[in-house]
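dumping this here before i forget
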Amino acid sequence: MMREVFLGLLATGLICTQAYASHDAAHLPDPGLASSVLSAEGGAVPTVTQTQPAVAGKSAKRANFEQTNASKEARHVANWVVDSGDNLNKPFVIVDKLEARVFVFDAKGQLRGESSALLGLARGDHSVPGIGTKKLSTIRPEERTTPAGRFVANLDKNLKGDEMLWVDYDTAISMHRVVTGNAKERRAERLASSLPSERRISYGCINVPVKFYENVVSPAFTGTDGIVYVLPETRSAREVFGSYDVGERVRLQAASQSHPILPEAQGFR
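structure:
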């Protein structure tokens, strides 16, 4: 029933775009994706699953960014994902909104590729309730956000048969090849810009270069689902993901082993 309803919405021009011709594309998603909850601010925010730190005595694991430059926050989240196993042994993506960049990792945390990306025009980590069923013409500039959070993602196709990575069903957010149908938006030119602010233009979807999508994103998610972590820009990653600093965990673990707590300190006499 859900699939028929969604097809009907697409047919009437609702959801993220109409037929993926000149703006962000939407398609028929897997209805089993992660759910969302309403925040105190009234926007849709993904449910946060608290992940416990790795078992004491277990060596730390970190993501391998190779020689790629990445922000402190992107490294923090990627390292936490690998150390905690929050990605459930699946490929994962880090979307750094402040830098307007995307990092794709395999299940073990090895970088498969990185690229600049076009993201939502408006600054913000929430989505307007019901944004996924609005026509593009009714979405105001301040509503065009790429929501932050942890999303279960998989490959699917739109009604024209174009493949994309469906990120969040409720807010109609996907990652796809850059759409260049509207020349006034200069999307290809913006992708090549060194200024992150230039890469904020979409209605919320994540646009990446065609070759990057075809050579990195699509192969990484072929035959499996995965996790997309969209970093916040108005809050901290710890607030959104319940993450921890891997280096800090290691230091605390070493300190506890060097200075064991005496029974008296634990309240035992």
